[in-house]
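quick one before i forget lol
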Amino acid sequence: NRDKFLQCRTGEESPFYNRGTRVICIETEQVFPNAVRAAEWIDKMGYGKPHNGCKILSCCKHLKGFHTAYGFHWEYYIESRKPIYDEILKLKSELNNKKRLFSEKTN
């Protein structure tokens, strides 16, 4: 176990790297195999410099004070909730369309 821990600390690929619960970014609809992979995506896209997936997991757990991480909303991805995610995205799209129409009318 100590060798596996040291592998993780040195940044080498470890057997634990892909373990974990899948997470979804609500805004982008992207599903990640775990919070570490989501944090890597955040870093790659330039949205922040996350150390690991701790803030993302805090959002998934709905801990006090953690509503977003790196400007995104996060949830544990549960396959049976897919219709709920789709409904949220549909409502967000409708809201954005209404905002756009309103701004066009006022201009």
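fyi The longest helix spans residues 82-106.
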